[in-house]
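Write out structure tokens for Amino acid-binding ACT protein.
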Amino acid sequence: MAKLVLTVVGDDRAGLVQSLADAVSTHGGNWETSELAELAGAFAGIVLVSVPDAQLDELRTALESLDGLLRVTVHGSGDQTDVRLGRRITFSVLGDDRPGIVRDITGILSGHSLTIDVFSSQTREAPMAGGMLFEASITARAPEGADLGAAIADLERLASEIQVDLTLE
């Protein structure tokens, strides 16, 4: 079985996910994991599918035929071993929105050689104070031997500097 990561983007409208799911299913594929969202009128996402090796080329062709409805980019081409070594850290951030929050958080993570498993964020109106709030939920993985405590200390320092709440889970 081949594992493929599909990135998808298109103008938001009914039937986009159905078209993608039909192409995967028709070629014996299995839809395993996905993150899909509407963002400012565009539909975007990432999907992990597995497909029998014998159907791989046919699925790629079917996905290319969705162009015009959905632009699909296929990443990967065969069996890949998903090795998830290292310790995980999961945390959330909540505070006033400002430019650079994502850059600052990810700068600390990459500075400590942590990789991001999940990064989900949004902005929303602050209920009573006015303005916008930034909210993120992040899961990152530290490689063996990395100083996870130092990364956490740097995240806590940043949270204090930019006045956001950091919650470690």
